[in-house]
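Re-run with default settings, no changes from the original entry. Doing this only to confirm the output is reproducible before filing.
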Amino acid sequence: SVLPSAPNHRRAAAPICRAAYLASAPRRTTPGQGRPTVRQMIENDSYTSGDRILMRLGGVAAILAFALGLWQHVTQTIEGQAVETSRPILGNLAYSAQISLMCLVVVGVFITHRRSAKTMGGVAAAVALIGGVLWSGSARAQLAGAVIENSGTVLPVLPDSAVIPTILVTFTPYWLGLLLMAIAALRARVLPRAASVLVLVGVFLALLPVNAPNLFDVYAFGIAWWGIAMLRAASSHGAAARARSGTDQATVTVGGG
């Protein structure tokens, strides 16, 4: 037979498989020392098919949350009132949806850099996820209140003594979790560093006692950038996995022939 034996053919095909991985992996200019970059993780087959699904869900959720938040803040700027005071149903619906979507973003970010972020990444994701669930519950309650009030029913006003505890229980874990996630992402160096800086700076700006809707752009653009990075990483790894699977199948077919 003029065809090479299966072991020899596998050795010959190995460089092709490696080239397919490296060609499809996103490049980085400043890889972290001692931590695998997305490019290296793809080469080492560190993402499972389930990981890729969660990364895509997180990426799409990040982009949708950005779009909903941007729309909400544009309408608030035009109307001159926040959704908490004017109680529009659509505005509160957008607000509730974007906070709920952030729970998927947290999971996607954790999956993307969990091997590099290690313990801190897990702690940050846990805090952010707990905060996201609590804050989204508060947002849905606010949406329900808006629906009831728009139907003509007057709801009792929350007393001042209950406002601060409510904010501490729901708002604090959410923003603390995002803050820790941004720091973990900067340490892991898997997601774009500029995006992580935007999230980090945006979280601090959002805590300032000023009424400036445009501050939203800093935090939201960082989240959307994370989303795009997650989609690209999942797509690159999926293409690399398919290329490797095709090469291995061709190797088995030719070697068996």
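The two ends are 9 Å apart (CA to CA). The CA atoms of residues 3 and 165 lie 75 Å apart.
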